Amino acid sequence: MLRPERGAKGKSEKKMLKFQNIARLHFALLILILFNLTLNKASGVGINNNILIATKVILYLSGIFLFFGYVKPFKVIAIYFSFFLITPIVIAIFYFMHGIFFALLSSVFIAPIMPLEAEYSESNVKVYSKFNGFLGRCCSYYVTQNKLFVFEEHVGDIAREGPMDFKKSKFTLDSDSILIESDTVYRMKRR
Predict the structure, then answer these.
(1) Can you give the pLDDT at residue 10?
(2) Direct distance between the N- and C-terminal alpha carbons of the chain, in angstroms, rounded to an integer
(3) Long-range contacts of range 33-38, CB-CB < 8 Å, 24 or more positions apart?
(4) Phi and psi angles of residue 174, each rounded to the nearest 5 degrees, phi first
(5) What is the 3-state secondary structure (H, E, C) of 40-66?
(6) Where are the domains of the chain?
(7) Which of 12, 20, 38, 166 has the most other CB atoms within 10 Å of its CB?
(8) Please, is 174 exposed, middle or buried when counting C-beta atoms within 10 Å of its C-beta (0-12, 13-18, 19+)?
(9) Which residues, other chains included, contact 181 with Cβ-Cβ below 8 Å and sequence gap of 6+?
(10) Residue-level pLDDT at 3
(11) 3-state class (DSSP) for residue 5
(12) Residue 162 has what DSSP assignment?
């Protein structure tokens, strides 16, 4: 009587266990990002954007890796993981097929993963340029204040007609307002 090799079954189980652990990490990161989105919209406090970018990159890479892990043998969850593989491909196709329609569609796809770059960062104040899509209006910014190194509090929005020269700008946070010294000096209420 022939018996199956013990090593073959053990390797398969180890492989599935590895995919399950990566899937747990993936869904934990997804829950963290959704919790951050909810907390940020409700209270204005969220995770530091540098940490959030790293979290999104790990989420996408794990999604792509899990897609290839669950596609053969096919499992229904592979359809969910295919989103992480298809999104960058669709964005690249839309980028090369110029046009307003494709620009609008690609802005919908890229909005969740678009990294925010701090235009101004000094002491505990950061100013980020808002992502308004490819056809959005110019020169919208939002101001955050660092809290406990890991969190940022949204303290206000800036909407200008033209771009702001951040090399010549200075932002000062008071208890109830933000003082902006640029080409003009003005004070705006905190959020």
Answers:
(1) 67
(2) 76
(3) 33/59
(4) -105, 180
(5) HHHHCEEECHHHHHHHHHHHHHHHHHH
(6) 6-110, 118-189
(7) 166
(8) exposed
(9) 169, 170, 171, 172
(10) 53
(11) coil
(12) S
Segments of 12-116 assigned E as strands:
45-47
pLDDT for the residue 23: 94
DSSP 8-state class, residue 29: H
Peptide bond into 88 cis (omega under 30): no
Q: Are 119 and 160 in contact (CB under 8 A)?
A: no
Residue 74 has a CB neighbour count (10 Å cut-off) of: 9
Report the distance separating Cα 30 and Cα 42, nearest Å. 18
Strand arrangement of the beta sheet that strand 118-122 belongs to: 45-47, 151-159, 140-147, 125-129, 118-122
Q: Which residues pair with 68 in a beta bridge?
A: none
Residue 118 backbone dihedrals phi, psi, to 5 degrees: -70, 120
β-strands 170-173, 177-181: how paired?
A: antiparallel
Q: What is the mean pLDDT of each run of 10 residues along the chain (191 residues)?
A: 54 80 95 92 89 92 92 87 88 77 73 75 83 71 86 84 80 79 75 68
